[in-house]
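Let's sit down with a protein and look at its sequence and fold side by side. We need material for that, and I hope you will provide a protein of your own picking. Once you have written the record down, we can walk along the chain together.

***
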Amino acid sequence: MEEPKRFTGVAVVAFPLAAKSIYVIARKLVEIFCHLAEKTVLISGNIPQSLDLSCATSVHDVGKTLMDLTRGRGLFRNAVKWAARNAWIQVLLSARLIRTRKDYQTAVFFLGTQYQLPILVSKLMGKKIICGSAGLGGDFARYNYGRLAAFVALVLVNFNYWLSDVILIESWLLASDKTLGRWERKLKLGTLYLADPQLFRRTTEVSQREPTIGFVGRFSPEKGVAKVVDAIPNLLQLAPSAKIHLIGSGPLLERLRQRIAEMDVGCAVAITGWVDHQELPDLLNQMRILVVPSESEGIPNVILEAFACGTAVAATPVGGIPDLIEDGKTGFLIADSTPGELARKLAEWLPDLPALEQITSRARVRLEENYRLASALQRYGRILAELTGI
């Protein structure tokens, strides 16, 4: 018999950004609150039909997406258009929040520096506000658009935090971030979980995989994909049989294509655009090592998916990644990501099949113990109970 739901209603608001990960996280949050609340509302834009919600949810689609701000010629004009579209989408999201105000008491906002108007509107209606700290904030703006953009992003983020009752962080390691430090009393641990455990599973043993190193994510400066590309010549000298598979898209895509073409590495390197989430498990099961060389992260979902698929992960020790990866035990931490050193370490790890087998087994245990739906339900149940006094 299903346990009775303790809370009345929750609205999950996902700002419709170009980043596909927005919908993956939205689905996880909806799944959590469907278990905890009597009513769940999802408000976003251009929601993909492939977003399979396993529970009854009131879905409201504003039909818009905020694409990335393009740099280069006409930057000022592009920035004005981008800001206008941003403002209009905020108006549309706010209108849906007003329309559905009787269906929720708590509104959850995540991933992005946007939401100023929707959060303000929700606050004026007397709703409790939960704001996710992970996402496209100051670090993203600094790496992609410079210091001025980072300053503006931080001002907007702090406005959101000021209005919020709870600020979710994916790891307590992030609590020392200078942006979050002043809001310490509002911080709550909001780590998510691995969705689709039946889909993300090991189907190919590490010993049966080709010596493939993969990257999955956004092709943008803060994700560090350029480091992987720069390491390719040295890597192929040290491990001539290695293959590199880059999966994703973003503003650096064409530049990286050109750089790889200049290397003349033949079929050793493959670039695949964004793939459907259903296709990712097969691709992860073809890799021995997934590289996550990010400059800034929370708890990357792709690491959890790699753990589930039996793929070893090599990642920079940023954000909440050290919560997942204990160096040499549940993965590899990349202390030095310069091209020569990254290539040397990858060439060292790639052929060591016994070590990879042990690491992936221990990573699976960590996944099962800490990153399943049951654990997330406990965390979010406590947050809602403290917030609503139930």
Observations:
- The longest strand covers residues 7-14.
